DNA sequence: TTGTAGGCGTTATCAA
DNA sequence: TTGATAACGCCTACAA
């Protein structure tokens, strides 16, 4: 015999299915005589009754699932965020459906369609670009969502991001204390809030320390990747401007620098110091171990999960945005500036 | 107005809902006049009709979801497998629900319950232990599943694993060619097929090359972790037996060796060579870059997805197991054996 | 080839 | 407090 249904339980308890439903659902249990309730619950246990969430969904039009839109799960940034989200969602009875967009808007659109057709009750989105028509449109359609890591311009949607500006300040401060005065920035894509905010914070940090802000020391990467990081560093190097330190847009870009160091025989941190951003796993095993800004990824997930649950349960709350505090992890890729050759 | 239903489409096309259903479903389209079909399809497009998979599930008792049981998504091994699975499942109309067990059997049981209550149509399981009562029980209950990475004893369930034995052979062969004769193995947990198979293959490879198989050169790790790897290597070192190379159970264990090298001032590969297993990302950025056995993780996912689909669509096929070929990636952590000090 | 009717398992509404 | 009834959106015998 197959799995017992509510009817079976009701029958076993000698009540109507509707009553059994009420007794089994904590929300409505108070509507039923506590003796009957007990009886129903006991019957349910005896039969090993498991409610069928699909039938429930059909009736309530609540799927108990949310969608998680990532660029690429393979980026070590995301798994801890996913775990954080699930740690909050699971106990609340929700499951996450994960999709990867590979930064392809067409694919993203298609994947979001899939999620919506599966009736997700909300979206956690890690792929936001500053201009993002799809998100705009979803928002207008009243789709509940929370942005993580990145934000979108002019869109009143809650977001959970690291305090990127503060992270860059920490990095610059650290380098300045080590005596660096000529610092380059390999910025991330300027289509993302992360890329823009970090670059802007970099400039203002330089000015804050009274350093000059040489345009030759800023290169923008088209992707958050090693290849782009390498390309960007080569470009600075080939430009001929002097510098003794690099603030990389993120760890992958910093790893690209390592490739160029090897390629050109540059000593890090002897000749050039590097700071990354994110604190990916295993960075301490590199040579030199990478100094970087640690982002509380798990926490980002937790907060995002909470915020989405909140907006599901209290749809009228006005959206808040959260900036999570960051810390600098000093390792071996940064050292005192070499004696000035000027 | 909310999302259009099948009825709306039918009405728009001037047919009955049943006809619309038949027209929209490729399986049954041939039952309907091709003109009517065209009309229905056009109406569906005009309205932006999306079938409600929940309603469909309730009727067909097919959820279109499968469960993916992982120890921990945060282990870089798994994301590529997940992507591989989704690459196959997505186009087939399935979505994956991912759960993490943290290697805790109680948590695993609870998570699997959740998955089953969500009516997943099958399970892909990466947490198999050799003795695994839960899997045994699920199998007896007729739950469709595919094992990845690891297998289970005495259970007639399809599995997709790397050809672990061959991988170890490749590693040992490589070391022998470099002149190593005293080789240690830091084995993974012997509760997993992976740990056992690799250890067994290690012994037989040594014998195959006529080397002696000193028990002092084998230590078993309780977990696949850096900490355990470090502990195991210290144990070999402290045992005093001579050796010039290590075959680590996996990359994390190898990373633990790096910690011990740093701690004790041992030169790798000058004094000791190390080979890992898995080829995690960024291993080429370590110092020295880690020589390791590359496992086709994405492909494992693809094959697992395919096999699960197969067993869903043709339940009577007898289970097959697949061993995927491996290759050795030679990097900087292995070098010629130092001149014998004997 | 198309329509009718019934039901998948649950919950919401109404009446008793 | 409980029961009867209908409905969520879809699919599928069966009948026409």
TrEMBL record, chains A, B:
GO MF entry, a single one: transcription cis-regulatory region binding
PROSITE patterns: HTH_LACI_2
Keywords associated with the record: DNA-binding, Transcription, Transcription regulation
InterPro entries for this protein: HTH_LacI, Peripla_BP/Lac1_sug-bd_dom
Organism superkingdom: Bacteria
Domain HTH lacI-type: 4-60
Alphabetized CDD domains for the sequence: HTH_LacI, PBP1_LacI_sugar_binding-like
Name of protein: LacI family transcriptional regulator
Organism: Nocardioides panacis
Top-level taxonomy: Bacteria, Bacillati, Actinomycetota, Actinomycetes, Propionibacteriales
């Amino acid at each position: 015999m197959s799995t017992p249904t509510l009817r079976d339980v009701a029958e076993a308890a000698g009540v109507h299915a509707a009553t059994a439903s009420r007794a089994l659902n904590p929300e409505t249990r108070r509507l039923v005589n506590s003796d009957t309730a007990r009886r129903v619950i006991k019957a349910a246990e005896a039969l090993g009754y498991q409610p069928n969430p699909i039938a429930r969904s059909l009736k309530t039009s609540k799927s108990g699932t949310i969608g998680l839109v990532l660029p690429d799960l393979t980026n070590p940034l995301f798994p801890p965020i996913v775990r954080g989200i699930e740690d909050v969602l699971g106990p609340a009875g929700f499951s996450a459906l994960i999709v990867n967009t590979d930064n392809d808007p067409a694919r993203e659109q298609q994947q979001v369609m899939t999620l919506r057709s599966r009736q997700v009750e909300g979206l956690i989105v890690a792929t936001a670009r500053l201009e993002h028509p799809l998100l705009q449109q979803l928002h207008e359609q009243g789709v509940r969502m929370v942005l993580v890591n990145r934000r979108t311009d002019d869109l009143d949607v809650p977001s959970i991001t690291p305090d990127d500006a503060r992270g860059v300040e920490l990095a610059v401060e650290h380098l300045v204390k080590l005596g660096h005065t000529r610092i380059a920035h390999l910025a991330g894509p300027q289509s993302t809030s992360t890329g823009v905010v970090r670059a802007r914070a970099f400039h203002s940090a330089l000015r804050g320390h009274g350093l000059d802000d040489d345009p030759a020391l800023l290169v923008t990467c088209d992707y958050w990747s090693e290849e782009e990081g390498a390309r960007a560093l080569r470009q600075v190097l080939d430009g001929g401007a002097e510098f003794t330190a690099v603030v990389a847009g993120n760890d992958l870009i910093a790893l690209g620098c390592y490739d160029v160091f090897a390629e050109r025989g540059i000593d890090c941190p002897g000749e050039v110091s590097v700071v990354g951003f994110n604190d990916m796993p295993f960075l301490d095993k590199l040579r030199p171990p990478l100094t970087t800004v640690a982002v509380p990824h798990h926490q980002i997930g937790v907060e995002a999960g909470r915020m989405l649950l909140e907006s599901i349960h209290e749809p009228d709350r006005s959206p808040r945005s959260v900036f999570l505090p960051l810390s600098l992890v000093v390792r071996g890729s940064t050292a005192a500036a070499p004696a000035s050759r000027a």
